[in-house]
Task: inverse folding
């Protein structure tokens, strides 16, 4: 068990470094390693997939990912705000989490698939894994 206390992601800093930039900045491939790992942690805590001690309510950790999801959703909609129903938002949440994890794996050399773009973010797409001892994996699976 991790006994460190995990502080909430700094939303002001997120706004300055990502939200106030072009929408593409929120794509996982354009995030710094620090932001990738902070978001991965936030997803894990928000979905209660970790037993780490946290500060506040686990649902508070959903704020940074949801902020970026909204930012990207507007970008996909040519800059226009549109209502997103709860089911679609949850799907976007899970797909963005998958893209964050895929980007971490891609940077570690475990995945040989192109990074998500504004056109492909929030879409199911095939990815390809690299098997260290066997080379390129022929089969893909959908994120």
Result:
């Amino acid at each position: 068990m991790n006994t460190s206390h995990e502080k909430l992601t700094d939303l002001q800093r997120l706004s300055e470094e990502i939200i106030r930039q072009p929408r593409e900045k929120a794509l996982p491939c354009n995030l710094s390693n620090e932001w990738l790992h902070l978001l991965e942690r936030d997803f894990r805590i928000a979905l209660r997939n970790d037993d780490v001690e946290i500060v506040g309510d686990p649902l508070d950790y959903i704020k940074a990912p949801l902020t970026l999801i909204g930012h990207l959703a507007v970008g996909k909609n040519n800059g226009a705000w549109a209502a997103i129903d709860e089911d679609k938002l949850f799907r976007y949440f899970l797909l963005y989490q998958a893209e964050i994890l895929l980007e971490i794996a891609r940077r570690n050399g475990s995945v040989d698939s192109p990074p998500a773009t504004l056109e492909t973010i929030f879409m199911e797409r095939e990815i390809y894994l690299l098997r260290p001892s066997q080379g390129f994996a022929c089969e893909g699976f959908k994120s």
